[in-house]
Amino acid sequence: MPTQPIPAPGSHAISIRNLKKSFGSNEVLKDISLEIEPGEVVCIIGPSGSGKSTLLRCVNLLEVPTSGTVLVGPDEVTHPDADLDRIRRRIGMVFQSFNLFPHLTVLENLTVAQIKVLKRRKEDAIATARLNLHRVGMSSKEDAYPGQLSGGQQQRVAIARSLSMEPQLMLFDEPTSALDPELVGEVLAVMKSLANEGMTMVIVTHEMAFAREVADRVVFMDGGYIVEQGPAQEVIGNPREERTQSFLHRVLNPMVIDAAEVIDEEELSTAS
Amino acid sequence: MSTQTTYPATEVAAPRLTRRQRARLSLGVQYALGIAVIGLLAFMTDWATFSAAFLRFDILERMLPRVILIGLVNTIIYAALAFIFAFVVGLLLAVMRLSSVAAYRWFAGAYVEFFRGVPALVVLFMVAYGIPNAFPGFQFPGDKYGMVMVGLGITAAAYMAETFRAGIQAVPKGQLEAARTLGMSHTRTMATIVIPQAFRVVIPPLTNEMILLVKDSSLVYVLGVTAAQYELTKFAQDFLNRSVNATPLIVAALCYLAITLPLSGLVRKLEARYAKAR
Question: Domain ABC transporter spans what residues (chain A) (predicted)?
Answer without folding.
Answer: 14-248
